[in-house]
Amino acid sequence: MMGLTPQETKSLGLGALLIALAALLPLFDDGFYLSISVNIVLYAALCTSWALFSGPTHYVSLATAAFYGLGTYSVGLGIELLPYPLLLLIAAAIGAVMAGLVGAATLRISGVYFVIFTFGLAELVRQLVTWTQTKFSTAMGLYVFTEMTESHIYWMLLALTGAVFLTSFLIARSRLGFAMTVIGNDETVARHVGIDTARSKIILFMISGAFIAIAGAITAPRYIYIEPPSAFNPMISFLVVIMALLGGTKRLWGPLVGVIPFTIVMDFISSNFPNHTMIVVGLAFLAIVYLIPHGVTGLLENAQARWTKRSAPAAVAEEKPA
Amino acid sequence: MLRRTFIALAASAAAIVAAAPAFAQDVIRLGASAPKSGPLAGGAAVTHWPNIQLWMKEVNDAGGLKVGDKQMKLELVEYDDKTNGEEAIKNIQRLATVDKVDFLVTPYSTGLNIATAPIIARYGYPHITTSAATDGVAEFAKRWPNSFWMLGTSSQLANGVVQALTKLKDGGSIGNKVALVNVADAFGLELVGAAKPALAAAGFEIVYESSYPLGTQDLAPVISGAKAASPDAFVAFSYPGDTFALTEQAQVQGLDVGAFYTGVGTAFPAFAGRFKEGANGILGIGGVNSEDDKVKAYLAKHQEVTGATPDFWASATTYAGLQVLGQAIEKAGTLDKAAVVEAIRTGTFDTIIGQISMPENVNRNVWTVGQWDNGIFKAVAADGLPVAGEPVKKPAWQ
User: Fold this and answer.
1) Residues A130-155: what's their mean pLDDT?
2) CA-to-CA distance for A48 and A256, rounded, in angstroms?
């Protein structure tokens, strides 16, 4: 299992260092910059969890809001009864079970059918939760009152993002990761070489769903008032896909380089054009698709390739005398 | 070529941003964050934003607010919260720490007000909510002493319905059979929870009861179920979409009852626009005292300045909330937030919805039920306020 190459050790060390640096942020600012960082880290966690499954399999899932809302509701319904850390685990379990059930039912279908089903799922779960709440719960509005501040939520989300990265890293090195690479390239071939494709996909979908549910559970104290339209907001599902694709899903850190510029650009637009946000966002999307069609990772890799090409002749020239 | 167009566009966008007005010293900077997009954008466009525009224009036309011995004009910094709690919190943070505004206009809706309340409390801004109606207000007021709640509680609104129905029953307009319907979310549940015991105590019999999930498109079964129980009164604690759909179905299926009540949205001018004469006699949540001179003047002014009719419930409260803020700043004679909060807590304010005082941070005097009467949604039940008239029996559908 272990036996890291020097390159991997370096990446892990760099990741840990970046997270440690990011964790210092609340010490410098606890106003607007912390607030926007909470949003960035939240979407970093969501997009990376999403890419964990959708990256290698190429199955575009729009079920993010369903898992996120389940996590939020686990905390909303349980905060008066159980300690908060336990609720995070329960949220993860519920997210995983839901993903398992959905996966068993749908991961044998593919392409656009899967996309449509997952989109409907968020709505289905929302209705089920509302129905359950009406029939069995005496709670009227759901309130989550805690002592948690934005800094606590930020740190928890940061820890979650770290955990998602570590999990992705470990999966990529495991048999499951290898199976996923084969499935992603050609599912028929994968089946022929004896990979249980359905099982592998379900396991990965469950891990991804559990992480998204935890993210929802962590953010619940920020909403305070839990209601279905905000917990199961379909915009969450779309934003996650858009940001992850902007970043690129081929690399583990791909979604991250999508989330950060996207959040900052969106924030710039909505603060400077409050009355024309949607128009400017539309123009920005056009610009993104036209100017960076392969995502930010594509852009970075191109730049790196160009840089290597430019410095390569120089290196050759240097080597000559020796 | 295309690339050059984008660069040109980007450059002009940057130029617009750079040209943002520099602000003078003697102004009060107000910050507002509310929906301009997302599910609640429609409601906010009717109830919230026009009142900010109207109030600021009135104050500035009159020379501004008198703070100590200075006349200070108002300036607005506004953001779209996209009907999203995360975005709303970020906007408040930006207004407080980047724009450093002097005061905040309340966010819009129960959920967004509660989500932003802890952040607003942290910066100590007075937080005068005018679009949040829930039974939690007393607790919120204690938790966030800078917050004030003006739109009343769910129990008040539900009891208002029972008062109006009782008057109709005692007057012989309707019998005692009620069909009770609600949208299955916190709002609907709170209201139905408060209405049921009150209806029983007033001698009503609930002959049909049903709830439907938020966002349900087809409400025909609800109406046909209610019709089969042949009630004398129909009460629905509904949201705008369902309010319109239920009324339409009742009209189509000919559910003729002496009292027809629907929830949020009934007070929108678009409701009368949609049902024309058919709206006459329909009861709904809210209402204003349209006989009052101040309310009359407000309705006319709103139409004149914003070019639109206000809604007949939270619009007036939203305007009144801004009046409270303005008068409290003048009373305190300073832009110090804590002093203004104290002024709101201890003062009495002359607003378009009457004299307001909030010793426990909650305004108890609210109109609870309105009734459409030729384009005006008149208050027919209230707590602590005069009404525009008594409820009348609804005529048959036309």
Assistant:
1) 78
2) 7
Find chain B residues with C-beta within 8 A of A34's C-beta.
Answer: 93
Measured CA to CA in angstroms, residue B222 lies from A209, B181, B197, B249 at distances of 36, 8, 22, 9
pLDDT(B387) > 90 = yes
Global pTM reads 0.82
CA angle A26-B87-A29, nearest 5°?
Answer: 15
**Class of residue A150 by CB neighbours under 10 A (exposed 0-12, middle 13-18, buried 19+):** buried
For residue B365, the cross-strand partners are none
Residue B120: closest CA among chain A residues belongs to which residue? A31
Which residues sit opposite B283 in a β-bridge? B261, B371
B377's enclosing H/E stretch is strand B376-383
- Tokens representing residue B4 in the block: 């050059």
Query: In A75-204, which ranges are E strands?
Result: 142-143
- Give pLDDT, residue A312: 64
For residue B23, the number of C-alpha atoms closer than 13 Å in the C-beta half-sphere is 15
Residue A227's alpha-carbon distances to A65, A306, B48, in angstroms, are: 13, 50, 21
Is B254 in a helix, a strand, or coil? coil
Residue A133: count other Cβ atoms within 10 Å of its Cβ: 21
> Are B93 and A32 a contacting pair at CB < 8 A?
yes
What is the tally of helices (H) and strands (E) in chain A? 15, 2
Q: Do A272 and B17 touch (CB under 8 A)?
A: yes
In sequence order, which residues have a C-beta less than 8 Å from that of residue A26 and are 6 or more positions away? A34, A150, A151, A154, A155
Work out the percent of chain B whose per-residue pLDDT is above 90: 75
Q: Which among A123, A146, A160 has a CA at the least distance from the CA of A75?
A: A146
Q: A-chain residues within 8 Å CB-CB of B84?
A: 230, 233, 235
Q: Tell me which chain A residue has its CA closest to the CA of residue B94.
A: A32
CATH 3.40.605.10 for domain B26-153+293-366:
no
Question: Is there a contact between A39 and B86 if contact means CB atoms under 8 Å apart?
Answer: yes
Find out whether B365 and B333 touch, Cβ atoms under 8 Å: no
- DSSP conformation class of A30: -
The per-residue pLDDT for range B123-144, each reduced to its tens digit, is 999 999 999 888 888 889 999 9
Cβ atoms of A76 and A142 closer than 8 Å = yes
Helix, strand or coil, per DSSP, at residue B308:
coil
What count of other Cβ atoms lies within 10 Å of the Cβ of residue B173? 17
Comparison of pLDDT for B341 and A131, the residue scoring more = B341
The CA distances from residue B16 to B12, B13, B19, B21, B100, in Å, are: 6, 5, 5, 10, 22
Q: Which of B16, B79, B186 sits opposite A270 (nearest CB)?
A: B79
Domain B154-290+368-383 listed as CATH 3.40.50.2300 = yes
How far is A130 from chain B, CA to nearest CA, in Å? 7
Contact (Cβ atoms closer than 8 angstroms) between residue B120 and residue B138: no
Task: List the structure tokens of B286.
Answer: 């809210």
For residue B9, the chain A residues in CB contact (below 8 A) are 283, 287
Share the mean pLDDT of chain A: 85
Kindly list the domain boundaries of chain B, sorted by start residue. Answer: 26-153+293-366, 154-290+368-383
Residue B23: what pLDDT?
A: 46
Q: Is B13 exposed, middle or buried (0-12, 13-18, 19+ CB in 10 A)?
A: middle
User: Using one digit for the tens of pLDDT, what is the confidence trace for B318-364?
Assistant: 999 999 999 999 999 999 999 999 999 999 999 999 999 998 999 99
Q: What is the pLDDT of residue A2?
A: 55
ipTM score of the complex?
Answer: 0.75
